[in-house]
Amino acid sequence: MLKLENIHVFYGHVHALRGVCLEVPDSGVVALLGANGAGKSSTLRVISGLIHPKEGRYDLNGESMIGRSCRNVVDRKVIYCPEGRRVFPEFTVTENLQIGAYRISDRAQIRRDIDKVYEYFPRLRERMKQKAATLSGGEQQMLAIARSLMGQPKLLLLDEPSLGIAPKLSREIFGILKTINENGTAILLVEQNANLALKISNYAYVLENGKIGLEGRPGDIKKNTRMHDLYLGKL
């Protein structure tokens, strides 16, 4: 589905990504791990079209996406759910979901999609008429993911979905992500909580200072002593 080869990104004189290569297969879950500043969010911004690499190749289903706009990327059903939730606080839960379907003209389809995301997130159904500002942090994260699903993604890009969320709700969200994937949506998951990410992933990459320092299947990553060193024993 997705393939990055030798991606280099600069912010002024700062070399943020240094030859990043990664792949996300159809219906796979791939974790992208690393410390703050390692280049995880920059990688997602390249894929979503928010920034363009100075060098490298980015293919989606065999089609080059280098230089394409965010709209081109969304048209190909690649949806980015950024860090920090970023819900519309004065809009209700349902209104936030409707905004996520802004590219879909079929109102009946929008209603069906809303019902589907409420099946994933029953908490949101209970709060459908509440303003997003009244939700807890975990519920706002659920809403951000649900709103992304309204774009009918084939590939969902998730940036730090557990950030600032209570452990119990984080586990609940990751369980829902696993179900979303089992229903056919591929996921590229940027996450600092390595334990949670590796539990639902088929493959993982670890970024170190803008480079892929380690990659492999979750079981192999967990056994790697370098991984333990990078995460100070968190695994």
Structural category: alpha/beta
Instruction: Identify the strand order in the major beta sheet.
Output: 6-7-8-3-9-10
Strand content: 25-35%
Q: Uncertain segments of ≥5 residues (pLDDT<50)?
A: none
* Annotation, overall tally of beta strands: 10
Helical content stands at 25-40%
- Examine the secondary-structure arrangement and name the CATH architecture: 3-Layer(aba) Sandwich
**First CA to last CA: what distance?**
29 Å
Shape: globular
Under CATH, the topology is which?
A: Rossmann fold
Order of helices and strands: EEEHEEHEHHHHEHEHEEHH
- Any idea of the CATH class? Alpha Beta
For CATH, the homologous superfamily is named as P-loop containing nucleotide triphosphate hydrolases
Question: Quick one: biggest sheet?
Answer: 6 strands, mixed
Tally the helices.
10
Residue-averaged pLDDT, rounded? 92
Give the C-alpha Rg. 17 Å
Blueprint of the fold:
Layout: E1 2-11, E2 14-24, E3 29-34, H1 40-48, E4 55-60, E5 63-64, H2 70-75, E6 78-81, H3 93-100, H4 107-120, H5 122-126, H6 137-149, E7 155-159, H7 167-182, E8 186-190, H8 194-200, E9 203-208, E10 211-216, H9 218-223, H10 225-230
Parallel strand pairs: 3-8, 3-9, 6-7, 7-8
Antiparallel strand pairs: 1-2, 1-4, 4-5, 9-10
Helix pairs in contact: 3-6
Mind explaining what this structure looks like?
This protein is an alpha/beta fold. The chain has one domain (2-84, 146-230): Rossmann fold, CATH 3.40.50.300. The protein is built from 10 helices and 10 strands. It has helices at residues 40-48, 70-75, 93-100, 107-120, 122-126, 137-149, 167-182, 194-200, 218-223, 225-230; strands at residues 2-11, 14-24, 29-34, 55-60, 63-64, 78-81, 155-159, 186-190, 203-208, 211-216. The strands form 2 sheets. The protein has a 6-stranded mixed beta sheet, sandwiched between helices. It starts with a strand and ends in a 5-residue tail after the last helix.
